[in-house]
Amino acid sequence: MIKIIFAFVMSLTISYAQLIDGIALVVNDDPITLYDIEKMKNENKLSKEEAVSKLVDKALFNQLIKKHNVNVDILDINEYLEKLADSNGLDIYTFKSLIKQKYKDYDKYEKEVEELILRQKLIERLVRGKINIATEEDLKIYYDNNKTKFQMASKVSVIEFASFNRIDLKKVIKNPISNIAGVSRNTLELEQSTLNPRLRYMINETNINQFTPVFRSSKKYISFLITKKDGLQVIKFVDVKDKIFNIVMKDRENKYLKDYFEKLKLSADIRIVR
User: Fold this and answer.
1) Which of 20, 63, 68, 160 could make an S-S bridge to 186, C-beta 3.0–4.6 Å?
2) Sequence-distant (≥ 6) Cβ neighbours of residue 29 within 8 angstroms
3) CA–CA dist 32, 163 (Å, integer)
């Protein structure tokens, strides 16, 4: 497979004007055009060889989706988001509100979630009964070897920006050194243990020198500029056990899927057209 891709990449000497409709190769009767390759390469800053490899993987993935009749509907997406919200101590409405502020294009975010669920469903079909379920001992070993991944700051230094006018607050967030009447600033030291789940989630999802999403409190619009996080503490094993289980199982599934696709490539009918 690697030799086929390399030979194909070396043969790409056609001008861009010819890329639009030209079929470059066919993967089990599904065509990949030269334009597809250029688009993949430019959008993801890949070499031609990497772009071809990713497109072949994508074609094989889509073929497996059809073969196993895997599909995702709006109920699947809502269920996924509800579980994600619940794992962070948030209700679904608050969680969606925060996501919409974090991602400029919420529809694009939902599309990414849809693709993630499709992948998860396919993996379940392919690996069912073929990988070992992680035991309590497996989870504890992972926790002990990766404690830095399960740390949370006990104290957070922030600058609180608050206003009764959401538009004015947004202006200051875009330009923090600006001075707009009606937007107050206060330096605060927050104890994570005293915060509600919503605020704790926002702060932990926000990096230093970045603003949290805007939220309402006491009739004001508020956003925190995170300036410092102190007192990193390792979260107790019991509090992250479910998260670790998902991480370990996902690692095992991805390894199985990688091996599966490598074998699939070897047996696939991949024909170079030009």
Assistant:
1) 160
2) 269
3) 53
